[in-house]
Automatic annotation (TrEMBL):
<dbReference type="GO" id="GO:0016020">
    <property type="term" value="C:membrane"/>
</dbReference>
<keyword id="KW-0449">Lipoprotein</keyword>
<protein>
    <submittedName>
        <fullName>D-methionine-binding lipoprotein MetQ</fullName>
    </submittedName>
</protein>
<dbReference type="Pfam" id="PF03180">
    <property type="entry name" value="Lipoprotein_9"/>
</dbReference>
<keyword id="KW-0472">Membrane</keyword>
<keyword id="KW-0732">Signal</keyword>
<comment type="similarity">
    <text>Belongs to the NlpA lipoprotein family.</text>
</comment>
<dbReference type="InterPro" id="IPR004872">
    <property type="entry name" value="Lipoprotein_NlpA"/>
</dbReference>
<keyword id="KW-0564">Palmitate</keyword>
<feature type="signal peptide">
    <location>
        <begin position="1"/>
        <end position="20"/>
    </location>
</feature>
Length: 258
């Protein structure tokens, strides 16, 4: 009887393991990776095993997802995804929102953007979406005026008024924290700022408003959106435990969407 009971327990555990879904989720280092680690802890008892894959830039996670190397990603906002879909033809869809990470302006040279001198060097991301986002923030701060027809995707070519004669350095987003020694200001995405030891709320000299169109999203391949593992992934992400983790660990520089 003991052997039979033991065998039954082993078979039950094996059946449970077979029932568990296993997925790989792509993230960028820093905030998104840290949060997904907490999501994985919540998802495991729900029957979903999450393997986290970190990518060092903003292009590869969507390529990896489209190619089937990962099942989902969580690192981008909808305007960026829309631009990627348009430019690269990816068949990717949003299945849930996650967090807002307000972009910040950082400087080792000035304490306020009003202190910038003529011809100041301004480092911004070189991808169209986040570069445009940085320029829109600079416009909100009164440093320049953009051509309205550019919408959410302005480039330095769309600057129609630049009273300080700012000079724009367009660089890979991950490299921007390293420019603080040379540029007068750098407009940096929160995940890369945090990875460099910067807190958007405490260390930036200006930051983006949290109510813009840049809430981040969970993305999967078109056709997978109704899978059970997708529902579990979103439910785990939107848990009270993950919300508390974000609020406790990011000092107001990351805002949850749920």
């Amino acid at each position: 009887m003991l052997r039979l009971t033991t065998l039954t327990s082993v078979l039950a555990l094996a059946a449970t393991a077979l029932m568990a879904d296993e997925i790989k989720v792509g993230v960028t280092p820093g905030v998104h990776a840290q949060i997904m680690e907490e999501v994985a802890k919540i998802a495991a008892p729900m029957g979903l095993d999450i393997d986290i894959a970190e990518f060092s830039d903003y292009v590869i996670p969507n390529t990896a997802l489209a190619d089937g190397d990962i099942e989902a990603n969580s690192f981008q906002h909808t305007p960026y995804l829309d631009n990627q879909v348009k430019d690269r033809g990816f068949e990717l869809v949003v299945v849930g929102t996650t967090i807002t990470t307000p972009m910040g302006v950082y400087s080792d040279k000035v304490g306020d953007v009003s202190e910038l001198e003529k011809g100041a060097k301004v480092a911004i991301p070189n991808d169209p979406t986040n570069g445009g986002r940085a320029l829109l923030l600079l416009q909100d701060l009164g440093l320049l005026t953009l051509d309205e027809s550019a919408g959410l995707l302005p480039s330095p070519l769309d600057v129609v008024d630049n009273p300080k004669g700012l000079k724009f350095l367009e660089l890979d987003a991950a490299q921007l924290p390293r420019t603080l020694a040379d540029a007068d200001i750098a407009v940096i995405n929160t995940n890369y700022a945090n990875a460099a030891g910067l807190n958007t709320k405490e260390d930036s000299i200006a930051m983006e408003k949290a109510d813009g169109p840049y809430v981040n999203v969970i993305v999967v391949r078109k056709g997978d959106e109704d899978q059970e593992w997708v529902k579990t992934l979103v439910e785990a992400y939107h848990s009270d435990e993950v919300k508390a983790f974000v609020e406790d660990n990011f000092a107001g520089s990351v805002i949850t969407s749920w």
